[in-house]
Amino acid sequence: MRSAVLLLSLLLTAAPFGLLGEETRQVSLKVISDWLHPSQNLLHIQAVGATSTLHYVWSSLGPPAVLLVATNTPNSTLSVNWNLLISSKPDGGIVVLPKESIQFSSALVFTRLFEFDSTNTSDAAAKPPGKSYPPYSLADFSWDNITDSLDPATLSATFRGHPIHDPTAAFASGSLAFRVQAFSRSGRPAQPPRLLHTADTCQLEVDLVGASPRGNHSLFGLEVATLGHGPDCPSVQEQHSIDDEYAPGVFQLDQLLWGSLPSGFMQWRPVAFSQKQGGRESAMPCQASPLYPTLAYLLPQSPIVRAFFGSQNNFCAFNLTFGASTGPGYWDKHYLSWSMLLGVGTPPVDALSLLVVGIVAVALGAPALMLLAGGVFLLLGHKRYSEYQPIN
Fold first, then answer.
1. For the chain, which has fewer Cβ within 10 Å, the N-terminal or C-terminal residue?
2. Family, per the entry (predicted)?
3. What SS3 state is found at 199?
């Protein structure tokens, strides 16, 4: 029984806060615009703690991208030189001061939207998962002004776009959206996959809505590029659980780590959804390819990445593919949604739900109770028979 109680106590213990040790942060979200060109802007999320600051800088200049910067002071600031940033050589256009306070920095760039025809593909693990159509370069998208979607109450904003050149009118009534949200405290969203967030993190939800597919059973994918630290690519880890309370039917959590902790991380569940009310019936598998080194000139260029890191960088990329040839798919409702969490420090850790904890406690406690009851029965039975007095 004691061991069951001890395990129950351990299962209820969680570590939801990031490496920087800040359980409380002042989180703000604002748009930084070029006053000469108001449609060109950046989204800056700043999370200030007692001894550190996290900066997330999101942009749709070129392909959608985000900078992650962590400093060891609550007084670090972001500086943007728009003349440099929108020039052909944006190096130095974005800086975080003081530079010596920077403890970690990296970036993610969402470079291409892939489409495959899976009509004649029966192997769910096939690479690629069907006939490939020409990809959409996200650097060639036109994006709405982020100011129009800024919501300080929910600390969120949405980059919504469509191809500048769309000869087949596939996006005539559709769009690709990147919804960014910051958080002032720990918690979970209401909709699956309900990733556990903290004030050290922000969430990205990618939605493809209303675009006409080029095949009857089109699968879509997303190419993601990041900076390698040294000659190696970041590592990807899979975490498995016996609990699927927050994402029914999904017992896995994937995370990309930039080097050994403490560093940055990207975290997601390998699932996407084909309906707005995400649930088991609309869940689609999300396949992630291994990271591979790539040359910068092979990728659509992000001005904010070059502005902060310069032109000499090692890039790594990987692909995410949503759906399979059977089961729910984009073709159901012309809807696709996938979410990820981005942060600095130790990734949030899921504790087991109370239901699973209860089941485990009962499973461990029942044998102990049976042994205890059996021992009492034998003891009392032996005592009763030992008091028997023969007639003679």
1. C
2. Belongs to the GLMP family.
3. coil
Q: Cα–Cα distance between 189 and 187 in angstroms, integer? A: 7
Rounded distance between C-alpha atoms, residue 142 and residue 135, angstroms = 16
CA proximity to 305, closest of 119, 74, 63, 54: 63
**CA 119 to CA 214: how far, in whole Å?**
12
Instruction: Give me the residue label for tokens 């990618």.
Output: 206
Taking only the tens place, the pLDDT of each residue in 146-205 is 999 999 999 999 999 999 999 999 999 999 999 999 999 999 998 899 999 999 999 999
Distance CA 24, CA 200 (A): 9
Q: What gap in Å lies between CA 111 and CA 300, rounded to an integer?
A: 6
**Which pTM value belongs to this model?**
0.84
Residue 43: enclosing H or E segment and its boundaries?
strand 37-48
Write out pLDDT tens, residues 321-368.
Answer: 999 988 899 999 999 999 999 999 888 887 655 444 454 445 555 565
Q: How far apart are CA 7 and CA 135, in angstroms?
A: 50
For residue 80, the SS3 value is: strand
Q: Which single residue is written with the structure tokens 């109370």? A: 354
Q: In whole angstroms, what is the distance from residue 123 CA to residue 120 CA?
A: 9
Task: Give residue for tokens 């769910």.
Answer: 124
- What number of other Cβ atoms are within 10 A of residue 138's Cβ? 26
